[in-house]
């Protein structure tokens, strides 16, 4: 199933398929290792839903919800 990273449930895993967004946001995501083919898992969500914490390439990364909405993933069933 294809969905964006901001719609993940806690503990859900997936593989990044593509990264969209404006130039600066897209470049920032790529610099942090958010690239196609990387496995990602949602670890935590703040009480109001923003930001979220994901595990990516062996480290924890915190993203804003707007940044996570730019990451299209294929969820492991």
Summarize the structure.
The chain has 77 residues and is of the alpha+beta class. It is 17% helix and 42% strand. Strands 1-6-2-3-4-5 form a 6-stranded antiparallel sheet.
| Sheet of most strands | 6 strands, antiparallel
Give the strand content.
35-45%
User: What's the total number of strands?
Assistant: 6
Overall outline = globular
Round the mean pLDDT to the nearest integer and report it.
Answer: 91
Number of helices: 2
Helical proportion, percent range: 10-25%
Q: Kindly report how far apart the N and C termini lie.
A: 8 Å
Order of helices and strands: EEHEEEHE
Oligomer: single chain
Strand order of the largest sheet: 1-6-2-3-4-5
What structural class do the secondary elements suggest? alpha+beta
Low-confidence parts, pLDDT < 50 over ≥5 residues?
Answer: none
Tell me the Rg in angstroms. Answer: 11 Å
Secondary-structure topology with pairs:
Layout (H helix, E strand, L loop, with lengths): L1 E3 L8 E7 L3 H9 L7 E7 L6 E5 L2 E5 L1 H4 L2 E5 L2
Antiparallel strand pairs: 1-6, 2-3, 2-6, 3-4, 4-5
Describe what this molecule looks like in 3D.
This protein has helices at 23-31, 65-68; strands at 2-4, 13-19, 39-45, 52-56, 59-63, 71-75. The N and C termini lie close together (8 Å). The protein has 2 helices and 6 strands. The mean pLDDT is 91. Strands 1-6-2-3-4-5 form a 6-stranded antiparallel sheet. The protein is α+β, with helices and mostly antiparallel strands and 77 residues long. β4 and β5 (59-63) form a beta hairpin.
Q: Which tags fit this structure?
A:
77 residues, alpha+beta, six-stranded antiparallel β-sheet, 2 helices
């Amino acid at each position: 199933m294809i969905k964006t990273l901001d719609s993940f449930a806690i503990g859900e895993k997936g593989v990044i398929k593509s990264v969209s967004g404006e130039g600066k946001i897209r470049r920032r995501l790529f610099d942090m290792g958010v690239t196609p083919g990387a496995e990602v898992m949602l670890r935590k969500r703040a009480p109001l839903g923003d930001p979220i914490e994901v595990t990516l390439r062996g480290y924890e990364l915190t993203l804003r919800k707007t940044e996570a909405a730019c990451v299209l993933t294929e969820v492991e069933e």
